[in-house]
Amino acid sequence: MKNPTVKKQIEDPEQYSKELLLGILLTIAILDHTRLFFHYWNTNPGKLETTTPILFFTRFISHFFAPTVFFITGTYLFRWSKDKSRRQVFYHMLLLAFLLIVVELLINNFLWTFDFQYRTIGLFIIGALGLSIGLLAFLQFMPKKLLLLFSILVLIFHHSIDGVTVTGKSLSAILWYILHQQKYIPDGERLFIVNYTILPWFALLSLGYAIGHHYQRKWLLTTGLVLTCLFFILRGINFGDSQPWTIQVSFVKTLISFFSVTKYPASIDFICITLGPMFIVLHYIKGIRNKLTDFFVTFGSAPLFTYLLSTFLIHLAAMIGLCFTDISISAMITTSKSYEKGNELSNYGYSLGVVYLLWLVFVFLLYYCCRCYRTYLLHK
């Protein structure tokens, strides 16, 4: 019996390959989220003094997820818009943007915090995607070549304004935080978090949209190799990232320093080392289909559902896990105090070996949930 998850994708190898890549990267993102809740609380994988190669690698491979989501979403939006008028595209994009922002504020924020008072509100990947699609609704009226040029220029040069920082809670300051400056904004018991700044992420989305009509397998490999090589050149001369690499006491630490690129805001080095390999993988996986790829497509064909359900499952499991400790389960309700040193979870956590085992359990549980979800949609 054929897997109903992939039944409708067989005739479209391009869509299948994109969903395959999204599915693989979703499972990696789930690994990083498992680390966040089950590894030692508030551990920074990028801190050279305390990190380990496996901890850094666990975080680093998750970097590929977000750029892939934004770029592939851009290509999806282009394909979807081909048989529609610009006006139809405008209103549909605005509606989609609104829905994603609502999902971010009401659902995703709750799943990360489990706080019914919503004392912590964050702009994460779903909200940033919504804002980016809303902006694209207006800029899609530009000629495709001009939009492509604009996207490339933003990706290349946005790092040049990293030094422009503001403070305070004025409207102009908040708009700047959303555009380019990662910020934690405390306000009494409330905390507002801006992680995904819009400039580079919108540019990735619009890049996918602008080259949608040129999307061909033959240039994926070349572009991917060029971007990957460009990363080593730019990183080698310490250009394009606010965090320069330095020679460390050991080769491994130096390697970690070299690959420790800035995600918030996403630097040009970060974009090159994530987009480049992503293009290469997309080139080679097109046309491949077997039971293993069908497994990952189950996740990639319903990415939003998978992402939200995985966050709920991981957070709930972490809360249940506290029942077997002396720590109150309320400690797993994320508030501004959760980010302070000395909180209840400061000494709580498990080794990375346990994290990886839990991750495998979550992935297989999610597989059956996502398969049932897709089966329901296909038979609806």
UniProtKB/TrEMBL annotation:
Key words, A-Z: Membrane, Transmembrane, Transmembrane helix
Signal peptide: none
Transmembrane segment boundaries: 20-40, 60-78, 90-112, 118-139, 146-179, 191-212, 219-237, 268-285, 305-327, 348-368
Protein name listed in UniProt: DUF1624 domain-containing protein
Species per Swiss-Prot/TrEMBL record: Pedobacter petrophilus
